[in-house]
From TrEMBL:
Keywords: Oxidoreductase. It comes from the Eukaryota. InterPro entries: ADH-like_C, NAD(P)-bd_dom_sf, Zn_alcohol_dh. It comes from Mya arenaria (Soft-shell clam). Gene3D superfamilies: Medium-chain alcohol dehydrogenases, catalytic domain (3.90.180.10), NAD(P)-binding Rossmann-like Domain (3.40.50.720). The keyword Oxidoreductase applies. Residues 28-104 form the Alcohol dehydrogenase-like C-terminal domain. Pfam families: ADH_zinc_N (PF00107). This is TDH-like protein. The keyword Oxidoreductase applies.
Amino acid sequence: MEPLGVAHNGVERLRVEGEDVLVVGCGPIGLLAQRLAKVMGAKRVIGADIEDWKLQLAKDMGTDVIMELTDWTGIGRICECSGVAAMVNSCFSYLRKVFKCVTIKTVHGRRMYHTWEAVEALLASHQVDVTKVISHRFPMSNFREAFEVLFNGTACKIVMDPSK
């Protein structure tokens, strides 16, 4: 259910229906936020990242437009998922005068139950396929190799199997 629940919480708060949405960062949360924005009725979803392979994954998952970040302005909704301080600070330069911006954080408190139920319904209806963000699977016994892949920047989401 996570990181889908985290992405859902942020996108739901943006109220994306009928809006163009820029999602900065095409990691697991950003990719799922892009898909959720589409499911929640965004007019156009734009995925932005600095890694070509992540942009290709966004395109493969149905994002309308992919882009490397440039000097561009005028979007009404931004979902910042990169977690990079410089990107968080620069997001405001991409916004139009009337906007909503959210930085994705963890879900806690009362929203956790709402988010869980909403995400469970999205998964059951097959509107969101979380398997597309899983780039690697490792048995727990290969944890060193998993961490090497994680730290070399070639992984999107790693799943480790504790039974192996």
